């Protein structure tokens, strides 16, 4: 939250000239209009003033002539996720904070909100697959490097995680690995550290974790498949894992399947019910995981292991494996029509907030 909000307050009778001074001095691109009791009754931006001038208003006109009398606001005690959602959906750079009585108590800005503390949790990005279902696109390009919205899929994933404060990255590479390494290098271009885990032979969807240096994983590690597009809230995911401390947290997505026939329920040969074209609801893995350090430390190097088998072994051993349902945008780009859908979604969904 910005600590300068008290410097950008206006009264409803203040002039446009005064509003320009307050906006310039406050450097927040906004002024907040209050009544005599300190309640928020409007906001004024540079654009509001310019539009007033286009209407031939005098700079001595009161701000009530140009202010937004129905501003969006955050309730005191808001979460960071709520602030991000409002700022993103409203396409604004700042939003006032009010208490139960409507009194102004602060200002949240996108700039301040994005100043996250660095998170020490390592992140492992899986980028070694062949992408056979996307041939011929992957004949000469590894699937995570296929471009969506002008950037490789893997870069979208990396940048999202960077925005949440992660900076220690490991990327598993195998197929056409030099393209991944050449593009991301050591991560300095993105302000982070990137190290590469080389799979000499494919080790499955989890086996490459066994190649990580043991001292690299002292905190829960985020594992993300390199062929998904998502806006999952990684902060909420990590908080949920830390709160419950399971062996693993699995991001899940609801998948609905409609049976195209009438389904028969029966006892022996006697039909007890008929349901026409029922829809079945399932949760499927979204390709994003949080693993406790001991899970990674238990894995043998150069041993092929798929993620479902790793998770089932933890469950069999009596250790907790939790679900984290993903309601945000999520798309697994495994087939050509998925790739085409991602291209269509890129402009509206994958833009940075």
Would you mind describing this structure in some detail?
The protein contains ten helices and 19 strands. The strands form six sheets. A seven-stranded mixed sheet has the order 11-10-7-12-17-14-18. Strands 1-2-3 form a three-stranded mixed sheet. It has a three-stranded mixed sheet with strand order 4-5-6. It folds into two domains: 5-113, CBS-domain (Roll), CATH 3.10.580.10; 123-349, Alpha-Beta Complex (Spore Coat Polysaccharide Biosynthesis Protein SpsA, Chain A), CATH 3.90.550. The chain has helices spanning 16-26, 46-54, 80-90, 110-113, 153-163, 177-184, 234-244, 293-297, 307-316, 336-349, and strands at residues 9-11, 30-34, 40-45, 74-75, 94-98, 104-109, 123-126, 147-148, 151-152, 168-173, 193-198, 221-225, 228-230, 248-258, 262-267, 270-276, 279-291, 321-325, 330-332. It has 353 residues and is an alpha/beta fold.
């Amino acid at each position: 939250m910005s600590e300068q909000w008290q410097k950008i307050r206006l009264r409803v009778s203040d002039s446009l000239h005064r509003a320009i001074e307050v906006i310039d001095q406050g450097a927040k691109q906004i002024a907040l209009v209050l009544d005599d009791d300190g309640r928020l009754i409007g906001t004024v931006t540079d654009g509001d003033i310019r539009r007033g001038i286009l209407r031939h208003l005098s700079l001595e006109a009161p701000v009530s002539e140009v202010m937004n009398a129905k501003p969006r606001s955050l309730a005191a005690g808001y979460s960071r996720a709520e602030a991000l959602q409002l700022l993103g959906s409203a396409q604004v750079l700042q939003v006032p904070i009010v208490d139960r009585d409507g009194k102004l108590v602060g200002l949240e800005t996108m700039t301040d909100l994005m100043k996250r503390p660095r998170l020490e949790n390592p992140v492992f990005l899986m980028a070694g697959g062949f992408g056979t279902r996307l041939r011929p696109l992957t004949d000469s390009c590894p699937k995570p490097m296929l471009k969506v919205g002008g950037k490789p899929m893997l870069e979208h994933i990396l940048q999202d995680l960077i925005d949440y404060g992660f900076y220690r990255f490991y990327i598993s590479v195998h197929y056409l690995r030099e393209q991944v390494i050449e593009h991301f290098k050591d991560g300095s271009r993105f302000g982070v550290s990137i190290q590469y885990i080389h799979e000499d032979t494919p080790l499955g969807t989890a086996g490459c974790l066994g190649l990580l240096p043991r001292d690299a994983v002292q905190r829960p590690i985020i594992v993300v498949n390199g062929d998904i597009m998502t806006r999952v809230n990684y902060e909420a995911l990590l908080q949920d894992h830390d709160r419950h401390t399971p062996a693993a947290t699995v991001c899940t997505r609801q998948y609905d399947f409609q049976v195209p026939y009438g389904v028969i329920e029966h006892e022996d040969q006697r039909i007890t019910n008929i349901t026409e074209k029922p829809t079945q609801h399932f949760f499927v893995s979204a390709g994003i995981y949080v693993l406790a350090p001991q899970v990674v430390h238990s894995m043998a190097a150069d041993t092929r292991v798929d993620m479902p088998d790793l998770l089932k072994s933890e469950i069999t051993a009596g250790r907790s494996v939790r679900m984290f349902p993903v309601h945000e945008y999520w798309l697994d780009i495994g087939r050509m029509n998925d790739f085409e859908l991602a291209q269509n979604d890129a402009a509206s969904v994958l833009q940075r907030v």
